[in-house]
## 1
Amino acid sequence: MKTKTAGVVALLATILIAMACNTAQKSSAEAVLENIRTRTSIRQYTSEPLKEAEIETLLKAGMAAPSGKNTQPWSFVVVTDSETRTSLVTKGVNRMYAEAPCLIVVCGETTMLRRPADAPADAPEEEMPNPNWSIDCSAATENILLAAHALGLGAVWTACWPYEDRYAPVKDILGIPEKIMPLAIIPVGHPAEFPVPKDKWKPERIHRERW
Amino acid sequence: MKTKTAGVVALLATILIAMACNTAQKSSAEAVLENIRTRTSIRQYTSEPLKEAEIETLLKAGMAAPSGKNTQPWSFVVVTDSETRTSLVTKGVNRMYAEAPCLIVVCGETTMLRRPADAPADAPEEEMPNPNWSIDCSAATENILLAAHALGLGAVWTACWPYEDRYAPVKDILGIPEKIMPLAIIPVGHPAEFPVPKDKWKPERIHRERW
């Protein structure tokens, strides 16, 4: 009888564990979709710094983005120094730069080596504008925001390019080379606010087969 | 004794379930990061069409993207009609348009209503260029690619804007209004190829504190 009871309990336990594992498996896709759905801009942070491993995870996510012809035109400046962060605050906007323990400045290489369109196949490559750099760097920025949310961190996309009054001081303060353009600054920290994500679903924005 | 054994087994079961749940919880972040890491461009699809629910999930992910001043400048044209898809193939490139069961054309509103910079506070808003539309629509495109991968679908980002030879025929064929610009076309289907994701991790692209 003892063995029988133990057997029944073990069976029940096995079923429950199997159910838990099944939920876990199913929720892999759901976890991704929920993370996309619930990510929202966080502009208030605690003073707790980010761990190096967290910063690396965010940058890995950024570099996993797709890019036109796989050019990967991105670079990142990670700023944790309080004085530098504070100096990036312009005109009282973007106080988050001073308050977030970490900033990730997403930069793009605005030129690329390629053969001019009408040149013969054996012509040398020349340095030409990369028309796709801001698009590719935007995908990288979104990946970082999604990864931050997954880690329980709070972040917000603040724009640099194409606003000269924003990118010019950033280039100057961080010593960013001429051909490199900061697209966005992402303040990241542990959230000190928990806003409800906006519901942005608008079926009227969907057209079928043609506009 | 019977009760005691059952108690021990129940305790063990509880511990195992708790461990399973903990793994499930932990893997929620890991699922997101792995999805970002393993997403890759898929250019070969089976003939199986997408379910309506899948299309809606992809569009919901797109509309969940962040946007400058929350303008949400995106609209989407979903094309499943084979003839329309085939007509979008230009110069033999982008054969995926004909082969994927579904195309999502990510479009952006290139203008927005706002008050001119130097106008008084009570001045009426005017239709002005939206400098952020392509950035916002890029974030929406990346969200759709990540959601597709999470659902086990295959997709690839193909560029329209800023390449006139690509966006002009798309606008023409789909009847897209003058002020709306197609940024990208995403062919989506069930994958018929399983390429290994590229490792794009480049620590040399990271700068600390300044460039």
## 2
Amino acid sequence: MAKTPLPWCVRPGSRVRLKDFDPADTRGLTEKEAALADLERSRSRLAELQERLYAENRRAVLVVLQGMDAAGKDGTIEHVFHSVSPIGCQVHSFTAPSDEERDHDFLWRVAMRLPRYGNIGIFNRSHYEDVVAVRVRRIAPRSVWEPRYEQINCYEKLLCSMGTRIVKFFLHIDRDEQRERLLDRLRDPNKAWKYQPGDLDDRKLWNDYQHAYEDVLERCSTEAAPWHIVPANKKWVRNALVAQTLIAVLEEMDPKPPKASFDWRKIKIPK
Amino acid sequence: MAKTPLPWCVRPGSRVRLKDFDPADTRGLTEKEAALADLERSRSRLAELQERLYAENRRAVLVVLQGMDAAGKDGTIEHVFHSVSPIGCQVHSFTAPSDEERDHDFLWRVAMRLPRYGNIGIFNRSHYEDVVAVRVRRIAPRSVWEPRYEQINCYEKLLCSMGTRIVKFFLHIDRDEQRERLLDRLRDPNKAWKYQPGDLDDRKLWNDYQHAYEDVLERCSTEAAPWHIVPANKKWVRNALVAQTLIAVLEEMDPKPPKASFDWRKIKIPK
């Protein structure tokens, strides 16, 4: 956890009721125009810090994005990481596990996709689906998913101790906002591809999902890898807060390019 | 750890001095001919148990083989696993890490090679090189390798809790036996390819290696994944003990094929 955690960071051990968090909160940001200009600056800063991380090449950052359907995971990636070079930044979108993945423990496919040192890896959905969707849709019994909270904490702590900093975001929207966004998808021929009939099944299970997320936020917010609850009804607020969080984390990590092992004055470049 | 661990299993927390273990010990096996006949039976039994593990398809076994050069890692694999179908049994021989592997934590390449459920994976060398060779050859400073014992214990415990049973063997030979075997390699044109000049550098560091292994055997013998010290001067003893250990582990795991979901009497096969 950061030495001075941001207010939307979940302190380890605290109780989480999502109803206590207003998804339309602006977290002190009052003007959209100013926030957008600020996001532009944040993006440049993020690109700069990522380049230093890449030059240092000794640690990695893993960003985990979770949220209900239409919470804005894709949009966050597009808007926040837009200026970061894809050389040092990779996204992996997790869908249903393959046969090969199912034939391993649930964390195996996570290990396969971990970012190289020097890189920012972004998980669009993640191993948390194995304690959220798997639980809510009853894909596996409690005896399977119950030990996973502890297994996740143990694994994340281990990764952290070996140089991968994990930053987890729960993008928090409400039911009405989801309805608007799903309607948008249906109405707009350019967005319709994002709509899947299964979205409505999950929407019916809204309360179960919220409850499963509350358990995740409570049980898997650790010193090594805390969760951040980002109010996400307003996209400009969501983007600003995610960017601010990542900048704070990277500034604390303070990556430094290795010192040059040569004296530049002595190096001649042949004509 | 097995409910009734074999005598060559290192109890967690015990102190290990390799000088106290006779590499020429026969561990109660007195006759080579009888032991060889017994190994033949063990191999069939192992093949049978592995097939049940494969049919069950819910857990995996990971065999870790470590030892000094010429301790017999390759020979053990050849002689013990010889009857097990390669469909459900894969060997991975670890060498120096690749650039991509070096750009991740030291356990990442282990994760990449974990056996699928239903399979036996064999590691010919392993992550233990990262606290043995790396330490003895001073490839990394103490600040890098010291935390790894704990990281290994944590990771192995996690794997175990998710269904991968880890069985670790240290093949214990003495300096004289190594000398004989290296000379054999040099003298026999069919074995000469196995000889590498670096073997002699490592031989010079014999005591440092023994000491590094003592630390591994003491610090990484856990309830979840204990080490076995196998006297390996006599190949027939080594093979018999490794086979016995694996059979004991698999019998305790007692894998069972899933029950048929159909009534065979009702199924007609079209002519």
## 3
Amino acid sequence: MPLDRRRVIRYVGIIVFPTVIHGLGLQPASMPHSASTSTSFVDRLRTVQRRKASVVCVGLDPDPDRLPVPVRDGDSLAASITSFCREIIHATAEYACAFKLNFAFFEALGPVGAQVLEETASAIPDDCLVIGDAKRGDIGNSARFYAHAVFNHMHCDAITVAPYMGHDSVTPFLETEGTCAFVLARTSNPGAGDFQEACTCDGEPLYLHTARKVAEWNGDYPGTAGLVAGATSPEALGELRNACPTLPFLIPGVGSQGGDPVAVMQAAATDEGLVIVNSSRSIIYASEGNDFAAAAAGAARRLRDVLNAEPNEAN
Amino acid sequence: MPLDRRRVIRYVGIIVFPTVIHGLGLQPASMPHSASTSTSFVDRLRTVQRRKASVVCVGLDPDPDRLPVPVRDGDSLAASITSFCREIIHATAEYACAFKLNFAFFEALGPVGAQVLEETASAIPDDCLVIGDAKRGDIGNSARFYAHAVFNHMHCDAITVAPYMGHDSVTPFLETEGTCAFVLARTSNPGAGDFQEACTCDGEPLYLHTARKVAEWNGDYPGTAGLVAGATSPEALGELRNACPTLPFLIPGVGSQGGDPVAVMQAAATDEGLVIVNSSRSIIYASEGNDFAAAAAGAARRLRDVLNAEPNEAN
């Protein structure tokens, strides 16, 4: 029920939005979603994950150099990428609770990229959540405009946010009820060592200090904040889960980046602490041949099964 | 000369880019700019600032709720914003060395926003630099795609970058010769206290540690990195200048945010340490009446004069 309503509201939001424009301007980003306020993002996520029996998120990073052969002959690069994403979505949705759209790959197409992104988000079925991997972060006034773009135009249920500029750059993303801002805490890349681990506050590393701040801000907007916590450091994942027992975690870094799915689940998944485990390249580029969609489906299914296995089964 | 060449190369870059596509994919972002490599961003900035006798950057934050009366009757919100930006650019360019495009306000228009942004960037005259205030930051592979979008499609000479994810999220923005990545160090907003000031590394605040890292990365790509350092803390500005004597600083926070232009110049401007002082709202919204363009020009001219005054004159 909440999922169907959400999708209906998503489209209604687009259609009715001009009627809630204030003057020539924008209402707070919460307006078009206001009818869906009864269900928080965390509750929606829990419902989806139970229904689909999956914590897998399929990451859509459509790299023009890696498109499978069957979709390379589109009328344009934009058309090829749209086809590729649609086929991947169609093939893998059964095994996923969410899709993550990496905005970089769409923006690199030029102005048409925003249209491709919007069309791709619209192709994601109702029973999956849509995460805009945009890593936005700016002062309050600008952040509100970014939130409006991602939640209202790009049909996203969640966004990734960079915390460097502090509270007034993050909280505008928490004001749209029913959505979620996954704030970078401890990322999966080599550069995580430069600031997140090297800097400290009150004796704790920056990534943990960030997480505590996010939990504090979430208190003012319950159910709207989460953390990005990479699979490449299960130890940090465990610390973050201890510090933030109820925040949902978006976990990149399994697959191509080498994170161990079983260790991730042991460190971070609890009854009240939900996880979304993302894999991009190792699913969507599982084959570059005619079987690319089936191969992606197989990779998503296998990841789902590994993540669902009891620790004894997995080992 | 370098400026004219740069602009020519900017357009040539767009036109010839399809011929340098590798397969269906993208070459490194440096390709379309490779012909302009003989002039670094810092050298170009120095030339522009001398020629224009100005360190002023006009920030374009086109807020639909604040459009002046004469441009409110466009065929669409996108058309109104395009007109507004063009008129502001035309009126203020004489007094500015650069324009800063705040991507949030363009993205909030929906898919058409990318087109509005591209058209606005194209309207900026040859003798001003274009800064894309995008605050991007993602793992290396994604960062390269963001760099391509901003430097090649959006015609920007520089971009703002968020450093939280460390070196592999920043250095891809340093690979396009002739351009610059202004990395957030100490921002002008209230949230600067949450992490930038509260966290430390080797006894120094995060903002200073960030600056030292940026200077280190700039060593591998000379002349391609700068810092964002807010006007609201002249003390931090001075520390940052001492730590990074040759990096250019992009300084927001004068005008509506209350930073003192004179204190900014005393703290950060040196012969070898260039500054770009941005003002957005107090220039572009100087009047909402028929005189909005003239009022913006007046505000830009006054800021230029205050920034150019010798300390004795200003006090």
